[in-house]
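Dear all,

This email documents one entry for the complex benchmark we are building for the journal club exercise. For each entry we list the sequence lines for every component of the assembly. Then comes the predicted three-dimensional structure of the complex as a token string, followed by one or two observations. Please use this as the template for your own entries, and keep the labels exactly as they appear.
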Amino acid sequence: MEGDTLWFKDAIIYEVHVRVFLDSNNDGIGDFPGLTLKLDYLQELGINTIWLLPFYPSPLRDDGYDIADYTAVHPQYGTMDDFKTFLAEAHRRNIRVVTELVMNHTSDQHPWFQAARSSRENPKRDWYVWSDTDEGYKDARIIFTDTERSNWSWDPATKSYYWHRFFSHQPDLNFDNPAVREEIWNVMKFWLDIGVDGFRLDAVPYLFEREGTSCENLPETHEVLRDFRKRMDDAYPGKMLLAEANQWPADVSAYFGQGDEFHMAFHFPLMPRMFMAITLEDRKPIVEILQQTPPIPDNCQWCIFLRNHDELTLEMVTDVERDYMYDEYASEKNMRLNVGIRRRLAPLMENDRRCIELLHGLLLSMPGTPVVYYGDEIGMGDNVYLGDRNGVRTPMQWNGGWNAGFSGADPEQLFSPLISNPVYGYQSTNVLSQQRTHHSLLSFMKRVISIRKASRVFSRGTIEFLHPANHRVLAYVRELGTEQILVVNNLANSAQAVELDLSRHKGRIPIEMEGRNLFPRIGDLPYLLTLGPYQFYWFRLRKI
Amino acid sequence: MSEETFLTDDFVGQLMSVGEVDLLVGIATHNHAKTIGNLVRTIEECLVQSFPRERIVIVNADGGSRDDTQGILLRAAPPESKNARGLTSLRTMHRISTRYANAPSPGLALRTILASAELLRTKACAIVSPENSQPACGWVTSLLRPAFQDHFDFVAPLYTRNKFDGLLARNLLYPMSRAVFGQRIRELHSGEFGFSGRLASHCLSQTVWHEEVVRAWPEYWMAISAVSGGFRCCQSYLGVKGRTETTPDLVAAIRQTVGTLFWCLEKQSDFWMDRADSEIVPTFGPDHELAPTTSRVNRKKLLEMFRDGISGLEQILNSVLHAGTFAEIKRLAALNDGFDYPDDLWARTLYEFAASYHHGVLNHDHLIQALVPLYRGRIYSFLMQHQESSPEEMETGTEHLCMEMERQKPYLMELWKSNSEVKP
């Protein structure tokens, strides 16, 4: 696990909440011993990094993003020793572990906030943002538009308002206070000392508030983040910071700084455009957003994903695009949440294997470190009738038996109902059944991840888009040193022919990377390929 | 034997790359370098606004331009409708272009566009004139929307015209088309119109493309095909019709338009012989409008040419027109001062010409040319009558002529069915 400080570029991240994966003590809730038991499964899948959602003590009003204690494990998920065992076992399998650090806000149950609201004179009072009116920072948007009407909430105890960018039970920390910054650093040190490999920093654009601004992406925020990064690099070299900043690429790229802030940041606008490209049968949305994406420092990387634990956010799209996405992917009102769509990958694709595979093909071949959301590797469904985003956070489906193999508890005791409908239910969609066949989605995922890991061109190479006349085909060449990989994707639900200008690669022989078959040598003429519906090819361009 | 092909391999390749589309805008060009750049930008801007989700292609059929019209069309910068993030429309907006011949042929151009529509499985199409470099954004939308959303098969345009523009349409094409074919469509003869993919396929499959009239003026034939084929027709208001820079050659215009009209009468007689009266067709937007202007027509010259024509073509007109009809016309021509060429006489004149065309009394070209002086007489009379008329009064006059032509339609049918020529 030691050595390369740029390991995150080659990472294939598996995002999972400990609660959903495996319940080892039959209380209906997943836990660290359970997760540890399934590390072999993850190793076999081929991922090499786990991103754990918050597992800290919390009232769980926002699935753990409302932290009540930064330096402990929620008793439902096990003990600190259980976590340390999990971490060691993961490392033993060359799997790194990235944890959540929610630094923007705490739970209102956190002792810091309890102290702060106990009186206006309490020493912790200034750890949060208070006001006698709710008039301040009017230019800051409300993020959870479905539930919140203001970013200020009334505290009857001290007869004042406190600031929160998310739920009202998640008061924002006051990063103008040096004591807060120091305490957050202490939290980071605590987990780094235990051995975690990095942090996914939640909601980073919102750390500071300044009148007359949107209170997002402020210079002071970057200053604090640079400070944390320097401290971490000095004391814990090789650890990684990943930014969650749901912003446009030009704004997010600022979080890379000069290579001295975040190592990675999510590319939020790309995600909905991959879905759009499929339904539009047009490469334009993908090419256009990547062309709008500024270059980033060499020691940094974008982090890309198809789905995650949140809604499919539509904040980083135009109004026309948002309406289109709603109509195409969220025809029922209960599929929508805030400014997004609370659905999983397979239902979004109407369980079309070809589309699901194509999207994973895109995810794993485009520039950036890919994140696979738990369950998507077997095509799990969702439950839009559960509140908030809980419909995409249901128990992992291991087999067709009792509670899908997730827990030995009574079904009523499970933290969430299982998916049990005829299409996506655990009886038909589960790991065990997919492990038995070479043609399952799970087997496909293993193969494609394995191919991706076989070459660093995917993880570290440049990208050059080709511009064939057929706009239904998205083609690009990834290149690193002398190695070149040609990726050709048919975004359409019909067979397509495409002529590619590969004159720069004349003389090379395309070798299809899954079957390792040779294709005709590239010559002077445009290179003709035909692709079936939603088919994609990865070719190594060999010079022999 | 291999079937005839009129699409080049290169163009088929372009179509293949475009794939299935929802909307197609066709532009037939010939040396339109001055206008085509602005036109294509305006069209795309309009389409992005009106049809952000649809798959769209602009198809250019070029008749051998020597001024790089095709290149300018393909290279024209996309519309400046980027948002703050530099993002534009949802989809790729396609432009493709083909040179169908080295000399312009409206029929071949339209056939190329129809073939494109069929191969691309287009739902709705619009033909836009390349003369108009600055069409209002709504024009293309107005032509496409009725076909795309309301499932009409033929969308005729409606314009606001200057008071004395479109005299040929007002005095001949509209009243006669309406009376004969039975649908109240003002601009059946326009070079700008919309249509469904269904109508495109129907017209493409007809075996008339070699006919000279279809090669020269296919739009009118297509419109009549829609009417006579039972396709759903409507009108859509576009806006102010601009004046073309060039002065139209009246003889050529009448040869083309009336020639095609008579040819369509011939081809579609089974259809119109069974029909009486006329139907109002659905109209989107305001109805036909007139902008008040003064006449710039030289009335004195019109009168002279009318009189000269009557005397110079007496022998021909004698063989075309009923004796009573011709006598009445000659009486008008002999009047010293202004005269009124009344609607009933004009209707009779037109029907007797149409019947003579049908019976092959004369070479078709010669016959239609013989109508020109009579048309001048009618226009002279029309201008005299409406010099001070309001737009409403002019519309009333047009409606009166239409009703007269409908009233006399049985006369046309009688002439048509008779075994001999008109002349008793």
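Observations: The first strand of chain A starts at residue 13 and ends at 16. Chain A is about 25% helix and 15% strand.
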